[in-house]
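Notebook, bench 3.
Goal today: get a predicted structure for Nucleoporin protein Ndc1-Nup from Aulographum hederae CBS 113979 so we can plan the truncation constructs. The sequence was checked against the plasmid map this morning, with no discrepancies at the termini. Length recorded as 634 residues. Pasting the sequence as submitted so the record is complete.
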Amino acid sequence: MATIQKWPARRYKDVLTPVLHTRFTSASLQILACCYALALVTARLDSRWAVFQITRTLLIYISAICIMIVRVAGLHTGARTSNRQLQAYWQMFTSRDTFWTFVFYTLSSFIYGSVYTWTNSDSGLEWIDEGKPYEPRRLNERKILVLALFSMFPIYQACVHIISDTPHVKFPMVIAGPSDKEKKAAVKSVWKQLTDSFPVMVQNALLNAGCATLCGTIIYYSILRSFAWGWTFSFMEVVYSLRKSQAATPPLDFPLVMDIFPRFLWNAFLLGLLWEVTNNIFSSRMAEEPLKNDQPITEYANDPNGILLLGLKSKKEPAYTAFWELAIITLRFDARRKTVYTEDNRKGGSTWSQILALCLAEINAVSGRIDNVLNPPKPSKPVPTPTDQIKTLPRLSTKPLADGDVFAPAPEIGFGDLANKKMKQLGSFPGAATPLKAPTQKLLTYAESKFSDRQKAQMSSMGVEGGFKKVSSDFLQRRQWKQWKWSPSAIFSETFANRAAVIACGTPFSRANIVVYAATALAELIARSTTEDEYGVVQKDVAPIVRAITKAIKSVDDLLLKNLQPHWTDVDFKEDDRSKVEEVNEMRIGLKAALRKILGAYEAFLGGSVVGLNPNEVKAARAAASEGRAMIEK
């Protein structure tokens, strides 16, 4: 068996970082080309220098780089999961990255707005309106309005960035099966993805620009106008020696609004499109396979498998890439896959044993999370400690001893004390007469007769909590919300899909990709071991792998189909929604494909004692592996 050569320890992050730097550089160059195209669109066509827009291109490129900095700071590969959207929004808006998101979006908008105002000197956007020769100089409100709109637009776009979870880079699922080469050939280039999604980006940019321009104009004239005018005038008064008689806010100039609105709408659309293209290119580059020169990124390290194991043990973002690389190695690279079977002289165990432990930990975590939620451990009762009790003589009376004047006259009994005493007497004796008068009692009896036995049972069992739930549920499912195609339940309700994703995939970020990568890697290593494992190190571990994947699939199926009940706030829940949990269904399909791969490879050995599975376990595994796509295609 192979012996591992001792080399200085390196982290998986040290191998991954240069690859990410290369992708960042490639994305930057592609964005620079887009910035040049945008500079040509915004340039004046009557100028002989229209093609040579170097300065404008570089300034727009700096504006785009601000967005790339935001993406790098908030990069995460697992989908964000939470029981309700309001909880996720609170976590996102209170994080440290949110502050920098607003800062860099504002900086990007400021740079682009400065380019627009500086390069359009004849558009009437100077600070001072010189007017006619015989008129005094005045403060130009056009400049104030444009800067106010360029200040509010990035705030709106930053909120969209956070709410839509733009920092999420979605990795593709790698599922075990014979069609991996076809999937590899079907991977689109960055430019192909950009051209395919360009209509959607144009639509989003136009929608965001329209909403931001309309809302910004309303906010400016209703709230910010007097403050912005007064603050700007107090500063420009000193610089340009303006008259104090002009300090008052001028009346509303409707032609000014009609002039600025379409011009800013066009520039906001171009800026929003630049942001959309930047985010799309960055996500496409960062979601590329972990390969370098068509080889795994750890291939050129001194100890490739050792560095990969460190990545698999990582608790943060590098773990997603490491498990993805492991799955790709087991699928495509035969020479590298064979080293997993032969490397045994490694600290902490052989390469196979460590990969097995790490992959099984992720697969078992699925059933573990489900069991912890559906069958929580009962809290242990505290063991009472014996204490020495002092025995005293029994008391003949339970009333406290009087310490006042025993010969004083008794105090008068008030109406409240008398009523309280009477009610206690009525409640203490079963046959006591009702304290209500006859007409009142008849009215209550008549009202009770109008309710059916079922309604009485519902009202008696509802209580205060049930009443609150009913009122809230009625509010969330009003017809008006459906007519407006919006409902507050989308934010406040705990939908079935959200709860299932939190339980099965983990929180605050889903680990569904890691689970599928781990199952795929184990399935491929087991399937290829029949011809490549010369020492038989894999055979003894087939049974626990099959049991773990079978248990995970059964736990997910039981969770979706019967164990998880809809929350009372999920007023739009339908039984068909049980089969529409996308994140969980993708993980379920990957697990089933891996199990089918294992059972197909060891089909000839399942009946005997070679694998270590009894007939019931084999039957359960085959049942779990069947109908891999039934639920998601339903």
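Residues 303-375+493-633 form one domain. The chain has two domains: 12-288, 303-375+493-633.
Flagging this for group meeting.
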